[in-house]
Amino acid sequence: MRSFRAAARNEPEETALKIYHAAASPFVRKCLVAAHEVGLHARIELVPAAAHPVNRDKAIVAHNPLGKIPTLVTDDGQDLFDSRVICEYLNAQGRGNLIPREGRARWSVLVDQSLADGIMDAAVLVRYETFARPEALRWNDWITGQLEKVTSGLDALEARASGFGARVDLGTIAFGCALGYLDFRFSALNWRDKRPNAAEWFDGFGARSSMIATRPPAT
Ligand SMILES: N[C@@H](CCC(=O)N[C@@H](CS)C(=O)NCC(=O)O)C(=O)O
Rounded to whole angstroms, how far apart are CA atoms 39 and 17? Predict the structure, then answer.
């Protein structure tokens, strides 16, 4: 039976949540893993997108002036970005199990997400510096500086990882996507070297069905 809301709006019961998407994006993956973990993945419709810092994809810009992915269009036509807002939305629409409501636990999860996002931001910038920027314009000190952020972020993750246990929340999801992105694009970094706790944790977390279903194409 259709819900009152759906009947009043004359729309199907389970409308789609459209996510502008590229399989390689760790930020998109974070949202997709979150959708799986809150039970909303069946409602996600992937819209292929070509986000690029220079050659902007007009289809994304129509919904997000920053031209970045992930961008989500809700079933009632609201545009949401960036990945943090989208994950909060998915959490609120779904099982609500990814962000503790209050107290230290809430801030720990959110700062874990910030740390993981920072690792992904720095890694994505290095990727753009090496694959998008013309060779003559590249700045090696920039790459070194961004990789130092990745390294110190990973060291902080290593210090936290032995305490993760069976946690599945926005913090651990973001860490999983950051490590998955490093495996995908930066395997030469060998991040597992000297980080046994993070490596052991990722062995287990990476085997979750939400992580397997969202793996980037080449891993
Ligand atoms: N803070 C953003 C970062 C998103 C981001 O950097 N996405 C990349 C793809 S992985 C992008 O859209 N890049 C295009 C650009 O920089 O214009 C989020 O959390 O969603």
Answer: 13
